[in-house]
Structures are given as C-alpha cells and as structure tokens.
Give the backbone structure.
Amino acid sequence: MNVFKQLKPFYWPERKYLFASIFCLMIATALGLVYPNMLRYLIDEIIVKGQYHLVPTLSLAVIGVMTVKATFQFLHGASSGKLGNHTAYNLRNALYEKLQYLSFQYYDKARTGDLMSRLTADLQAVRDFIGFGFVQILNVCMMVLFGSLMLISIDPLLTLITMLTMPFLVYTAMRFESRIHPAFRSIRQSMSSMTTAVQENITGVRTVKSFAREAHEIDKFAGRNQDYQTNNVNTSGIWAKFFPLMELFANLSVVLLIGVGGWMVIVERITLGELVAFSSMIWYIIGPMWGIGFHINNFTQSKAAGERLLEVLHQYVHVKNKDNARMLSPDRVKGHVRFEKVTFGYPENPPALVDFELDAPPGSVIGLLGGTGSGKSTVIQLLLRAYNVKEGRVTVDGEDVRDVTLESLREQMAIVFQETFLFSSSIRNNIAYGVKNATMEEIERAAKLAKAHDFIMELPQGYDTIVGERGLGLSGGQKQRIAIARALLKNPKILILDDATSAVDMETEHEIQRGFQEVMKGRTTFIIAHRISSLKHADEIIVLDQGRIVQRGTHEQLMKQEGPYLETYNIQFADKPEDIEETEDAPPAAAGSGRPEPCDRQAAAEVAAASNNKLRGFAH
C-alpha cells in the first residue's frame, strides 16, 4: 500500500467522492442482506403457516428494497467515476508538468514509447483501481462482515462448519497475489518495449524504407511481440493454476452447508426458511471470496502501474532553480558571456570539454569549428544550462548561470538546432512559438530575414498552411528557415546557430547570412558550422578537438597559422579559393525552394566528411 500512500496527494483532495462512494456502497450492501431474510419470512411465516394473503405485501416490500438498493448503487457508481476521473486528471497534469521540467540528462536515456505507455495504460490502471477497485475491496470486507454476523445470528455452529474452508481460500488468494504481481509487471515492461518499437518504426519509416529494412523491422517487432505473448501466457498459467483451487474451496463450503444444514433441519435445530436464508447469505461471503482473485488482480496491476508513474514523479531533476535564484532583468541584459576554466563530461563518457575558456563581449560573434565529438555543441548546452558544469563556471553579464532562474536565462536566448523540429500546426504558429501575442507583421519580418517568406507565400494557404508531423511535407531547407525565423522573432540578446544553414543550398545560405548581418547587430552570437564561409566574419573563431581548444583567432589570423583551420579551408576551397572572398560582395540571389541540388548535397557531404577527418586527426 506504500504506492498508494505516495499517490495520496492526487486522490485525497477528491475524498468527498470517496466517502460518498463508500457510504452508498455500504447502504446497498446492507440492503442486499435484507433479501435472504425476506426468503426466510416467506417460507417460515407465509408458506408454512398458510398466510398467503401476505404475499402481495411481501412482494411490494421486496420491490421497495431493491429500488432503494439500485438507487444507492447508482450513486456509488457516479461517485466512484468522479473520484477516478478527478484523480486521473490530477495525475496527468502532474506527470506532464514533471516531464516539462526534467533535465536533458533524463531525456538522453528516456524512450518515447515507454513514456507514452506510462501516461496512458499505467495511468488508466491507477484510475480504475482508485475509482472502483479500492471501494470494491472494501465492499468485500463489508459483505464478509455483515454476512458472517447474519449467519451467526441463525446458527453459530453451522456458520463455523461452513467457514472451515475459508482460510484455505484466503491463503490461496494471497499466494496468487504474490505470483501475479511480478507477472503483471513483466507484461507492462514488455508492452512498453513493444510500444517503443512501434513508435520508432513509425517515426523512422522513411529511413526503414530507404534501406529496405522492412523485413528486419518486422522480425524485431515479432520478437518483442513474442516476449509480450510469452508473459501473457505465463500470467494465464498462474490464473489457471490458482483459480480452480479457489473455486474448489468455495464449493466445499456449499457442500458442507447442504450436508450439515440439511441434517439440522431434519432434527429441527433450524427451520427450512433459515436453511434457505443461510444458503442465500453464504454466497454473500463465498461470492466476494471467490472473486477476490479478480480484485487482487486489479490491485496488483494498479500497484505495478503506480510504481511506474512514481518513477517519473520522483525522478531527480538534475538542472533546476536554486532556492534563492535571481531573475535576469530583460532590460539590463547585455549578453556578455564568459566560460572560466570549464571542464565537463557526460555521464559514463570522457570529458567533452577540458579547461575551456571564452570571453564573448556584448554584440560579438563567436564561431565554433571542430569535428564530430569535439565539444562544439557542449559549449552551447552549458550556456543554455541544459547541464551543470563540473568544474569552472559559465557567466552571463557576470552572473553565474547556476545562480539565475532557468526561465529568465533562456528567455534571453534563441537557438536554431541542426536537427529542426516543427510542431504539427500552422507555419504562423511555428514561427511565433517563442513569442506570446506576436503580430503578423513581426512574423513576416522574421520570415523575410530568414528568407522563408517567398516560399511560404507560394503555399496554398500561406502562413496558415498546416505542416505535417515534425514538419513532414517541407524540405529540409524550408524547415530550417522556419526555425531560423522562429529564433529571430524572439529578438534574443544571445543568438545561437547550431549549423543552422546545413540543409540549404549555397545561394540560400548566402542570402540568410546577409540577413544575419542585420540581426546580429547588438546581440552576442554563437555560430557552430562546418562551412568556413559561415564563420569568416566572426570576431573570434575557436577550433576544438576532443574538448580542447587547439586554435583561436579571427579568420585572417587563423589563415596565417599552420593547423586544422587552414587545412579545412584548403579542403573546402581547393578548387575555387577566391569564392569565399567573392561572396561578401556578391549580389543577392533569389531564394530557391530550399531543396539543395543533388550535386550540392554530395559536395557538402564530402567536404564535411573530409573536414571532420582532418580535425579529428589533428590532435593525434
């Protein structure tokens, strides 16, 4: 019951429905015990004594009792339903809120399918038990108590003999509970694994089809489906083993009642009406005890489900506000960023940054260049405070980012990720996502700066066009330009571009870069890029390798040094080195559809691969 004690904050505020449900069920249960006594009266007082004129009166009394009982059962069902639904509402909100504030470190290992399983099937199991299951178990206790008192009032000895098998029934039920709980937990885990497989397959269906791996995915799903089936079959085996035993002990009570009770009627120790009433009331005990396995089943399922929900609710938040955290004032933030001897490593991985130092004055442009795994993205993650630094500190305008609220820190920043994510909504809503009450004029201005306005206006519904899930239906370049517009609309003091133009062609990249020249004014900008053309105008370019700074300086300074920057430049502009100089004064080109030509994609991929190999090998 410790699970439900921990869940108390979610159902105890709705206790009025709990108490109303219990009260109504108690009345309905007590009225149910009136029926056997009416049978006894019918036989002993009416049939045996021949007072048949009382039959209509007794019939009306039965109808009246059953009507009142039905009314209280209805009220019980309505109260239980409200209790379960209000509890589910409270839990659902708490879980969703927790998921919003869990840190990046949790989502690095979390599985979407598993989380969806917890928020749907597991929450439903808890809802059903708290709403109905708990009260039904309480009803079992009340029926056994009231029924036993009624039986004892007829004949204590017959009650004792009839109840001889009940301890065996209870013991079997307890054994059943101890076996069925881990079985149901295994079922939920295998269900979660199967759901994850389906979710990943649907999300990556284009990758699956492009590699012709349909058969592999079918086999993978079949394996997880087989595991789910095996767990269900094993659980069914537990049911098949224990339920016949419980049925046997229940029916033995009836056999003892008929044998001993019939003999007592013969010797006139009890009347025939009392035996009939006894036979009717014994099922008020046997019925609940016989079905106790069902209630235990519901209890164990909900307990296993509750444990999985509590795992999320009790999940430690690695990055959160301090108790005395200060708010950054938007009017006073200038955007002065410093990294002071920062060393950081992800869990179970070597350090991603070692003694990293950086001083970015307000309005400066910082370029980050390096191969895969060099630590470029880690610099941005620490600036956003997605993770806490291990050693050293990161400051904004002299304030340690750990000492200010996360909301006020991130409100001063806007980031364009390399992997663009769009919501299943209109283009207008996607661009305005980070700004409340953004006007259409502001949205269009941001789209024009990102060179997205022209292709948006060519769509049938313009800015009201609904993009598909994760932006499907748009090209990579189009999605990336919408993401850039979303960042620019926020008008941040610190702008972060994580390879933001990787999915656009060279001409569109040049147009976007020209737009950036305007929006970068007055704000600190961090640019992660593989193309040197994107970093050429940076005030400082930092070259990273395995978390360490191997070069730093302006483009002109680095071009005069032997090292990975010059080697990367020579790889990218080996054929036409003058191109990088010409783009600065080149006339604006018309923004295309955003879909890079095949040759551009291939060339970009080859250049990026060669650059990465060169950067990775430099330190060695």
